[in-house]
Design a protein that fits this description.
Length: 229
């Protein structure tokens, strides 16, 4: 993840020197006055799980991978510095769980693949525009539909199936930069996502070695998105 933050910073520095230095030519001067505009985004995600336990135990080990995001953007201008955004998107990720207290190696590992359709409603707070650069903060709530959660599956961990809920409620917050180029706006951003509800579907056996000691399991993650307007 550190590499992506370095890439984000390096990209900003490069574009600042190339086109956003002292006394630049102002690009798309009237674009920000539009009441409504649309765009799309591509990006990466880094999903994790946060566990709370009923009794003290060794923590589950979560190994995450870099996932990808793609979606569209609808932007409604409410004020010179405030916008309302709807950013539905598809997010794919994979997390692998290791149960250190389970002796049998075949039972110790669980693969959790998730394909989310995310529906965030966000408020964007922008600063004053400086030449062709406009930093902003963004935050709000979202609902995520997990297409591969197996919530209603009759199989559970006894059959090798780790089940999660179909719907998740989250809050999101982050920051980004609008870079006004000659023909479009490029907006790299970093955003954190934190689920509010417990996402674990317990096994049928109340004494299951996989789920009985877990009090709560919630998603948390980081999105690195590149938007184009």
């Amino acid at each position: 993840m550190k590499k992506f933050f370095v890439l984000f910073f390096a990209l900003f520095c490069f574009t600042s020197q190339a086109q956003f230095g002292k006394d630049p030519i102002i690009n798309l001067e009237n674009f920000q006055k539009k009441r409504v505009h649309f765009g799309f985004f591509l990006g990466f995600n880094f999903y994790d799980f946060k566990f709370d336990y009923k009794t003290v135990t060794n923590d589950l080990i979560v190994t995450n991978t870099t996932g990808f995001n793609v979606g569209i953007i609808g932007n409604l201008r409410l004020h010179e510095h405030i916008d309302l955004r709807f950013e539905p998107g598809l997010y794919y990720t994979e997390r692998n769980l290791t149960y250190p207290d389970i002796a049998d190696l075949s039972d110790r590992f669980r693969e959790v693949k998730s394909t989310y359709i995310n529906f965030p409603l966000l408020v964007k707070f922008s600063s004053k525009r400086f030449g062709n650069v406009k930093p902003y903060l963004i935050g709000g709530v979202s609902r995520s539909l997990n297409l591969s959660g197996f919530e209603n599956s009759p199989d559970d961990n006894l059959n090798g199936v780790f089940r999660t809920t179909k719907w998740t409620t989250n809050y999101e917050m982050g920051f980004g930069i609008d870079l006004f180029l000659e023909y479009f706006i490029f907006s790299p951003s970093v955003r954190g996502v934190f689920s509010i509800n417990d996402e674990l579907v317990r096994d049928v056996d109340p004494n299951s070695q996989w789920t009985s000691n877990i009090d709560n399991m919630r998603t948390r993650g980081v999105f690195l998105n590149f938007a184009f307007h």
